[in-house]
Design a protein that fits this description.
The protein is an alpha+beta fold. The protein has 5 helices and 4 strands. A 4-stranded antiparallel β-sheet has the order 1-4-2-3. It is globular and about 45 Å long. It starts with 8 loop residues before the first helix and ends with a helix.
């Protein structure tokens, strides 16, 4: 029917229950980070545009964490997902940064990723 993915509530619920038993603190952290209970955090995706000030820079030289307080959790590329990127991993135009931070900080990084410096 043209769907790119299917979400099964039974599969999701089963995985969630298993995670709760195996890693309760991780589940608690993710609940806190994604539902704003206690702290104001979001996990979002940031598109790196062709004119982005981040394109061609490494995670470290982009200073995303140091200047904006946003943690890059992964880089999504056409070849796949690169989790926990190292400081010397390069950001390229067309990448999606999977990042965590306060909503205002994420919006700032999104704006920076879309524009030229």
């Amino acid at each position: 029917a043209g769907a790119d993915s299917v979400v099964s509530p039974y599969s999701f619920a089963g995985q969630r229950i298993a995670q709760t038993f195996l890693s309760p603190h991780v589940v608690s952290f993710l609940d806190t980070a994604t539902t704003h209970l206690g702290i104001d955090l979001e996990i979002g995706e940031i598109s790196v545009g062709p004119q982005s000030s981040f394109a061609g820079k490494t995670i470290e030289t982009s200073r995303i964490r140091q200047e904006r307080g946003v943690i890059v959790l992964a880089i999504k590329r056409s070849q796949g997902m690169h989790f926990n990127p190292a400081p010397d991993d390069r950001i390229e135009a067309g990448d999606f940064l999977i990042a965590m931070g306060e909503p205002a900080q994420l919006r700032q990084v999104e704006q920076m990723a879309a524009s030229q410096s």
